[in-house]
Each structure stands twice: as structure tokens, then as C-alpha cells.
Structures
1.
Amino acid sequence: MRVLWLTNDLPPRAGGIQQFVGNLLDRVHPDDTLVVGPAGDDEAAAHDARQRYRTVRLPGPVFPTPRTLRSTLTVGRSHRPDVVVLGASWPLGELAGRLGDGLGVPVVSLSHGLEAGLPGVGLGRLVRRATRDLAALTTISDWTEDRLRPHVAAPRLVRVPPGVDEERFTPDVDGGRLRERWGVPPDAPLVGCVSRLVPRKGQDRLVRLWPRVRAAHPDAWLVVVGEGPLASRLARAAADAGGRQAGIVLAGRAPWEDLPACYAALDVFAMPCRTRLAGTDVEGLGIVYLEAQACGVPVVAGDSGGAPEAVRPGETGTVVDGRDDDAIVAAIDGWLADDRGRADAGAVGRAWVERQWSWTAIAERFARLLDDVVGA
Ligand code: GDP
């Protein structure tokens, strides 16, 4: 199977879609893949040289312009692909028809959170235009798929969510080093969140409600990992709640290599996210819940967007209304009080991630989709 990718989102640039695309590229026919991507610097050139797939970088961003079309058709013809894959359906889907006709092959596209937000602000027609010439469109969650379905013109919708690197995120990772760095005692019950610091994610509630959790668990600690616009407001809230004396640590951004240990250090992962701004600020899925479960840690999730789909309620964690203080406290309290329950949930969560959410499983699903559209 020879594959031609066209994508504006590509490692080494950081970001969720870049990660998503990079993980599929690594695993799905990498030796027979050519990627047409955005302009890059020296770091990008060094990154590209290390990959099994070949990358051609355009002089600027990959937008659906006549120039992008011409360049892609030129390099595409020399590659002789069986299928074209778009890294995101909007706006690149605008080129699908001319690419498919020019190369004589089907075009498949990924979709992410953004496309699912378009119908909500009256732009469903953009989704229709961008999907009318696709053989299939992938979706990341039930929640995004429900929003997209009425507007998608492609004949097939297939679930291909972003996944977790199950070999990197494992229960075997030692979190002790991170506890030491954070100044948390090795045996203290530890609740934590790893995420960008933005209102939607709910770190503000965790900090504000922490004294209530501590009333029932006087030796418990809370660590908030991440950076973002909410940082200074959280620092004030943490100080108001008692700061380190009350067992609250704001740890800042974690380096990429420490990420698995951040989760492994925890007894409970909590991110009580909530939908904001009339539904436009919403969780598409919540990869962090899956990363935590891959490390064998039960999760407390908010009921925003696709987040509940990243948990098996009662089995691997709890889903709460991210605006319900009592429910948030009760969920954290429940898991902290139940050592056996946490261990069982951790094991079930790990097995579920391996089966459903590992990049290995997801890449297989994507490879099958390519087989299907090429064979059809
Ligand atoms: P999004 O930011 O709204 O897309 O939230 P997701 O939960 O979908 O994904 C966030 C990704 O960023 C996850 O893979 C997190 O592990 C990662 N992340 C969040 N905070 C940090 C941090 O402080 N350091 C590092 N290295 N990664 C982080």
C-alpha cells in the first residue's frame, strides 16, 4: 500500500493533531509513505531525516490553495500512491476532489475537535463542502461524530481516535522521583491533574475544594501539573486554600520525558472539566484520562463533550458534573477511601487502554480503513 499524506500538522511541531498524525505515520505503511507538509526549520529537517517515511516540505503552511494542489500533484505522481490521506478535513478537504481526480485514487481524511465545532456556530456547510469528495472521514469520539454526521457528505464515517503510547505510559513507571521533586511524602495519598491550565479543565475547582477533601483525608496531597493562562489565578487560589501547608503543589509544566512518571506518582487523577462559552469551549476526548489509566491510575472526569467516553464509569473512574462541587469532592473522597477499589480500577483501566486506545490498536484500525477504501 503506497500512501500520500497532505497535512499542515506534522511533528516536530508540538500539539495534539501533530502527535496524532505522527503516531499514525510511524505505524501505518511508513516505508511506502510520502508526506507533503508545512515549511520547517533545521530541527524539522533533522526530524524528517530520522523517519522511515519521506517528507517534502512546502515553502509555507499547507492551505488549500492552487499552489498546494500543484505541488502535491507533482510530488504525488512520482510517488504513485494507492490512497491520499488528509491530516485534517477542514480546510484541506477543499482539495480532495482535485487531488483524487488528478491522482486517480480515493482520498480519506482525519477529523478532530475543530470540525465538530463548526456546525455549532452555523458553519455546517463548510463541513459538507470539505467532505463531499472524500471516500471516508474519521472521527475521534461519539460526541464529535454526532455533531458532524448531519453535515458530512462522505459515504463513510469511521472511528479513529487519538491513542496512547502503551509502552511509554505503563503502571511500571516509577513515580517516586516526581513525588520527591514535588516535596510530597512517598506514602501520602496523592491526587493530581496534568493539563494546560485553562478554565475548562477545572483545576480551579480542584484547588478551591481541596480543603474539603483534606478534611476527610488529612495526609492527602494535590499536585497540579501544567502551564497556561490560569497559572497566576491558581497560585492565588492555592495560597488562599493554605498552600503547601494544606498539601497543594502547583508543579508547572512537566518536561515530555517526565510525563509518564507524573501520572504514575498519583493515586487518583482528577480533571473535572466543564463545557464553557455556550458549548464552544468543550473537551473533544481528553487524552490525559487515557494516559492516566494506561499508568493504572483511576480517574475523576468531567462530563464535558467526549470526556465521558475516555472513562468506564464505576470501573476505571467516575464522571462528574464539573460544576457540582459536592460531586467532585465525593468522587475524589470515594477513590481515596478505597485502596482495593483503586487497585482494581487501575488494572481494568490499563487493560482497556491496551485493547481500545493503544496506538497499536488504533493504527491497525486505520490501516484496515485504507485497505477497505482502496479495495472498494
Ligand atoms: P488538550 O490540550 O485540550 O488537547 O488536551 P488533551 O487532554 O487532549 O491533551 C493534552 C496533551 O498534552 C496530553 O498528551 C498531555 O499529557 C499533554 N500535556 C498537558 N500538560 C502537559 C505538561 O505540563 N507537560 C507535558 N509534557 N505535556 C503535557
Note: The longest helix spans residues 339-357.
2.
Amino acid sequence: MRILVISDIHANLTAFEAVLKDAQGEWDYVWCLGDVVGYGPDPNECVDLLCTLPHLCLAGNHDWAALGRLDIRTFNNDARKAVTWTAETLRPDNIEYLAALPTTFVLGPYTLAHGSPREPVWEYILDPLIAALNFPHFETPYCLVGHTHTPVIFEMVNEQGDTESFPPVYRQSRQLNGHRQIINPGSVGQPRDSNPDAAYALLNVEQNTWEHRRVPYDIAEVQERMRRVDMPERLILRLEHGW
Ligand code: ZN
């Protein structure tokens, strides 16, 4: 089974379509690690497109925010404005879809969570120390997470639990070696690693290999749609800078 691993689409249909086109014919099933909506101009279109694919999907914090499940006073002004617009724009059937999403999945040797195995919806695994603290919170060799919008592999390198981070090497298949790892494919719709290209990954379950990828998409087209619905300018500009 070949898995297309995506996360943090954030209602960016153009980026989502670019990923599907780039990976066409190379996967059998989609694992989506949450935040399908929030920030971008196409929440219904992204849920609709995801639902046409054979897939599983986790709940992210922005999905929950759009459902009114979170106190959005913890979000900054711009994010709050986007959440409110998203909540008002989502169709009832798509709200129902998002409301039914689970927060974790365990599939063979892989545990899936949006943020972290310890705090699936909330925690950001930003560095090796936070990764090390999360290894006791899942039982499989590997955990796949999103949420930080930064592609990376954290690997436990010895029995003492020392953990190192490895930056992505794009379009090169990496053999997962049995060492415990927490792996992030990056964000489809709002990358934050100073690279504006959409990020995703391919996982081959039989061969236990992982491949990070990036693909450019028409950012101006998305920004234009965001301006039309009066999204905050900061959210519009960040797409072209990748932060
Ligand atoms: Zn996100």
C-alpha cells in the first residue's frame, strides 16, 4: 500500500490540487493529518475534494475551531477572523464531516496525530526535546504528525532516548530503519519553513520508505480569492513567503 501523507491543507484548494497532480498514480490511499480548513478561501471545496479520495482524516485545532469546539480567544486576531469566516462559510454536511473526525489513529507500525501523540490536537513538536518527551506516549515505532507546517524527521538515536532532527531531503526515498521516529510531512496549504511550495510525503507501507516532496502552485490565484472574501492581509501575504 502506497500512502499519500498530507496535512494542514488549510482550505487552500489550489495547493491541494497541485499536490494531487504531482503525486498522480503514485499512491493508493490518503492519510490526512488534520486542519483541512482554516486560513484559506476554499473550506468546502477542500473537504469536498478530500471526500472524493479513498482516505482517512484526523481532526486538527482549526477544524475544531471552525466547529466552535475551541475557545478562539487563544487565537490571534487574524486567525480568529479566518475562523469566524470559515465557520459561517462551511456547509452543514461538511461541518458534520469535520465533527466526526477522530484525534488519533494507529495503523500497523504507524501512530497518527495532528499535533503530537501526547496532546493530539494542540501540542507543537518543534524541536528534538519536545519530540523526545513524546516518544513514551505512543507504542508503535513511528508517529506521523502535522500542525507545525514544517517537514522534518525526529529520530531517537539510542536507548537513552537521545533524539535528533533530520531536515527533509526532497524526492529521495528514505528507508525507515526501525529506530523510533516522529515524522512531519509539512503543510499543503500554508508552509511555514520559508519555502512557499506545497509540502507532502509518500509512504510505502510494504517497503517502509518515506519520501518528502514539495511542489509549486499558483499562490497569486489563492491570494486573489482570499482578498475577495476580505481575509486579513497578513494571512494573504504569508503564503508567498512561506511563514
Ligand atoms: Zn495547521
Note: Residues 77-89 form the longest helix (13 residues).
